[in-house]
Write a structure and sequence with these properties.
The complex is a heterodimer.
Chain A (H helix, E strand, L loop, with lengths): L3 E4 L2 E4 L5 E7 L6 E7 L5 E8 L5 E2 L8 E7 L2 E6 L8 E8 L9 E2 L3 E5 L1
Parallel strand pairs in A: 2-11
Antiparallel strand pairs in A: 1-3, 3-8, 4-5, 4-9, 5-6, 7-8, 9-10, 9-11
Chain B lengths: L4 E3 L2 E5 L4 E6 L4 E9 L6 E6 L5 E4 L2 E5 L5 E6 L8 E9 L8 E2 L3 E6 L1
Parallel strand pairs in B: 2-11
Antiparallel strand pairs in B: 1-3, 3-8, 4-5, 4-9, 6-7, 7-8, 9-10, 9-11
The chains are: A mainly beta, B mainly beta.
Chain lengths: ~120, ~110
């Protein structure tokens, strides 16, 4: 079945540094990937839609300069949290899928926990 | 924006009991998905529903896509300790084909052995 891998699974960084999280579809090509943010005991909040070869589409309230998204290939999307601050600490999850009429199914990565000191 | 109202927010049950949770929306959804999330992990798809009225089972899990396309429920029969986790409903709204999933708030399930 479809497998999505995220790396790193957890990262601790100092305030002011930038952190890159990778999302890879291992056994399929993903035309679109999605990045979510999840705070403790809350649901997943969509941050942005990452389209291969084009600019990401950000949800309202998400700073595009803060959360840089690059989708360089059909199997890799990256999320870079720039100049991270403690309030950016969260669980970041990506999903990927082949989209089209009919069965839209997204596979989620295992998530990346970011802690900013 | 579109929202999914999921209930109950949490459940604490005895092993062997059946569980039911549901999601409702004020607008139409064309796909309903049910996910389970374990601590520190991403959501894992349990059941996908694509047609109004569809009833689908996956082992001890049964889910239905409401006739009005505005609701769905998930039942778990004969619960076991490994059923513990957070269950999310999610859906693709209306005729959207963008892949943007809308999530419910989640139902935290605890099972007492």
């Amino acid at each position: 079945g479809a497998v999505v891998s995220q790396h790193p699974s957890w990262v601790i960084c100092k305030s002011g540094t930038s952190v890159k999280i990778e999302c890879r579809s291992l056994d399929f090509q993903a035309t679109t990937m999605f990045w979510y943010r999840q705070f403790p005991k809350q649901s997943l909040m969509l941050m942005a839609t990452s389209n291969e070869g084009s600019k990401a589409t950000y949800e309202q309230g998400v700073e595009k300069d803060k959360f840089l998204i690059n989708h360089a290939s059909l199997t890799l999307s990256t999320l870079t949290v720039t100049s991270a601050h403690p309030e950016d600490s969260s669980f970041y999850i990506c999903s990927a899928g082949r989209l089209g009429a009919g069965a839209n199914v997204l596979t989620f990565g295992a998530g990346s926990r970011l802690t900013v000191l | 924006g579109q929202q999914l109202n999921q209930s109950p927010q949490s459940m604490f049950i005895q092993e062997g009991e059946d569980v039911s949770m549901n999601c409702t929306s004020s607008s139409i959804f064309n796909t309903w998905l049910w996910y389970k999330q374990d601590p520190g992990e991403g959501p894992v798809l349990l059941i996908a529903l694509y047609k109004a009225g569809e009833l689908t089972s996956n082992g001890r899990l049964t889910a239905q896509f409401g006739i009005t396309r505005k609701d769905s429920f998930l039942n778990i029969s004969a619960s076991i300790p490994s059923d513990v986790g957070i269950y999310f409903c999610a859906g693709f709204p209306g005729s959207s084909n963008t892949g943007k999933l809308i999530f419910g708030q989640g139902t935290t399930l605890q099972v007492k052995p």
